[in-house]
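One record is given unchanged without comment:
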Amino acid sequence: MQILTGLAKVYDLSGQSAIALTIYSQALELNPSNIEILNKRAQCYETLGQEENFFKDIEKAIEIDPDNAQNYILRAEHYMAKNNFQKSLEDVNKIIDLKPDNASARYFRGVLNYNLQNYQDCFTDMQKSLELKTNENGVYRYLGICSYKSNNLSESINFLKKAIEFGFDDGDIYYYKAYAEFKSGDFDTSLQDTNKAIEKDSKKYEYYLLRAKIYNEKNIFDKAEKDYDKTLKLDASFNNFIERGGFFAKYEKYKDSIKDYTAAIALNNQNAKIYKQRGYMYQKLKKDKEAEADFEQALKLNPSADVPLEKKIIVQQEEQQTKDQQPSQQETPLNSENIKGQDNSNPTVQTNTEPIKNESQETTVQTEKPKSPEQQTQPIKKQEQNIETATSTPIAAPSENVQPQQEAEAPKAPQATILTPTEENNKEKPKKAGFFSRLFKKSKKEDSADNDKHSTNVTSAQPSEPNNSVPSLHPSDVETEYNRANINYKNKKYDAALDDLSKIFSKDPNYVKGYLLRANIYSDSGDNNKALEDLNKTIELSPSSFLAYFKRAEIYSLQNNDDAAFADFGKTIELNQKFGAGYAGIAKIYAKRKDKEKAIENYNLAKKYDLKYSKIADAEIKSLSTSSS
């Protein structure tokens, strides 16, 4: 049996899992209760995508020896690789029950709690892991971010400094540190760290938004405006239009402010306060008719909205007159909704918007001091909103009792909805959990999140001739359609997303981001041929789109077209030399080609540039080194 087991390991380590599986099965016929062989065969099943058989072997191993932590580790890693963090956590809790002083298990559970947004639990586990002398340098990164989430700013800054000392100098580290400094009023240091974050990753709108806020605090208008523009170029979202609209209002650029509030309304027409703020802008320009219309709409959406008193009285009188004139007639549903405004009970939201749940979540533009991310308006994504909530003490949403501005006074700039890095995201959104798994696996969920994160940096080419059949619209119209398509895609409403993209291409047939998003939709739907067509189009229009090359390489790899995949992974790295996933992809191909030295070299680069590949790379390097010896 030992000979069979040893032979199976050789095939397993060389990547020939199917042959290893057969030999492990033969060994189990001789000894059906051998835990080690059951676990090894389970790993082969996992590699070959046979989940049902994987679970059967793990469950049999647990039945034979329920106190063997290794059984739970394999299943926990499997769940984590699939982003099923809750199930993984259940198994890790069992591991810690068996081995309470295991530093790696504590660290593992801390990462799971982080992905589940249990930041206080994550902090506790990371502290315990540190006490137990963990070998994971990433512990300081998590301690720093969790401290930030709990608004322990000085503690957060110190932990993040320590993380940087250990080599974790990605953009998000500097961003969290910069925002903690910003909240502490240290604008100069915050600016330095924000510049470092942008230097590390120039594609994240959050970094430019923070820098715009810093320049705004320092009253450097030109630089602030430039960064607000960059923010919207990367992410033309509801909150970001409100941000720039309030910025323009502060500097009395009322026409520009109106344009941005109008764009925000196009994304969400159920927010009373946005109409109110645009109404104030119209008042400044002496456009009383437009101002009154906006104040009236604000009252319809929220009868208690803080609008000029005379307008509220007029609307209330009109409502009463309507009732007095028709005392015996039943109101039609149209009159009831249009006059009374039933938004608090059942708001009607356009399909292309993310509704604000209630008035307490609407954006306020009254306060002067910058609020923390936890106190800002609700982001477009519900998941992002959850990430911004501190675990220790829930922070209330902006109060509806904020006093209205006086008509003679210019509205002040709205406070930024500065979203911290998506924790999956890279929201870190949540960060890809599979970096504890033995295998290099990337879930479809992460693919979509990564594509969202990077695809916004591609500049769409404008058509050479205007489409006269399409009305002249605000420049954000195509972005609005794209945002709606993106939301539908994330909700797996693929047909609706494809319809949205068709509208975009009718207006702009060379809209690069649209092709990249459609490629993801086709890929997730299993139509890799169509996905390749759109990726080829993306590369044709934007040869510097490293993400398009990476996505195409992944598809080629799935099709076992290793030469084409190798070329595209290489192009990915050429365009973005710090893209860890590119090195991990090319390392796998080198491993398949039995070039162990180059495989190990690229796995080392993958973990150098991206924390989430550290465990994967270490496991693969260990396997390669063992097989070479």
User: Anything to note?
Assistant: The chain has 31 helices and no strands. The mean pLDDT is 74.
